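Review the following:
>
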Amino acid sequence: MKGKQQSVINRVRRFGHGFRKQWQLQGMALSGVIYMIIFNFIPIYGLVIAFKNYTVIDTIQNAQWVGLDNFKVIMNDKYFWQSVVNTLGISFLKLLFGFVLPIIIAVMIYELRDSIFKRVVQTISYLPHFLSWIILGGMLITWFSSNGMFNQLLSFSGIHTQSNHMLDAGKYWWIASISDVWKEAGWGTILYLATMAKIDPTYYEAAKMDGASRLRQIWSITIPMIRNIISLNLILTVSGLLNSNLDQTLVLMNSQNQPKSEVINSYVYRIGLMQGDFSYATAVGLGISVISLILLIATNFVTKKLNDNQSVL
C-alpha cells in the first residue's frame, strides 16, 4: 500500500514540476479546457429538458417529468419529417458537389507553376467564405428576382422568363446547395493544399522519368498522398448531414419556398425560440445528435476498412 501511495505522490510531483516548467503553455491549454467545461459540458445537463414539460416559468428540476412523450410527438409530426426530407435532400446535393469540388480545385491550384497566379487564384477562391450569408443572401435574392441577372442571362440565351426563382419551392434545393458550394469550395481546399505541400517532389521526378503524364502523376501520387485528409473530411461531412446551414436557411427562406426550405435546424429554432416549446426542440436536437454520432461511427468504420484498417480519427 505504501508503495502505491509513493507512486501516486511521485506522479503528482512530476506533474507539478512539468506544469511549473511550462506554465505559459499549460495556462493556455487550461483556459481552453475551462472554456469547454463551461460552454460544452455543463450545458449537457440541460438535455434532461427533452424528457420534461419545461416552460420559462419552471426550473429544470421542478418541470414535470413526461418521459418519452416529446419523442412520441416527434414521430407523428409531419412538419418535422418534412424538414428531415428537406435537410437530407439539400445535404446530399451539397455532399455530391461540395465534397469533390474542393479536391479538384486544390489539385488544379497545386499544379499551377506560376506562384503569383497561384496566390491570386487561391485568394479569389477563398473570398466568398469571408462574406456572411446576409450579404450573399441579398445577392442571391437580387440575382434570382424577376428582373435579376439570372433571368437576363436566360433572356440573352433566348429563354425568356420573368419568374422569381426564389419563390419557386421546386428550385430551392438546387439554389441552396450550389450557393453553399460556391461559398465554401475554395475554403475547403486549405487542408488539401497544406497536405500536398508536404509531398516529396522526388516522387513526381521519378514518375516523370518513367514517362508518367500529369494526370497519371495526380492519380497515382497526389490523390493517394491526401487520402487520409479526404477520409477525414468525408467522415465529418457525412456526420453533419442532418445539420444544414441555419444562417443560409433563415436568409433565403420565405413563405413561398418554405415547404422545401424548412430544415431541421430552422424548425428547431422556430419551435424552440419563437414558439417557446423548449422541451420539444431539445428532444429533436437530442435525437439528431444521436443519429449524427451513429453516422460518424459508421463512416469511420467504412473509411477504416478502405484505408487498410487505419483510422484517421
Remarks:
- The first strand starts at residue 52 and ends at 53.
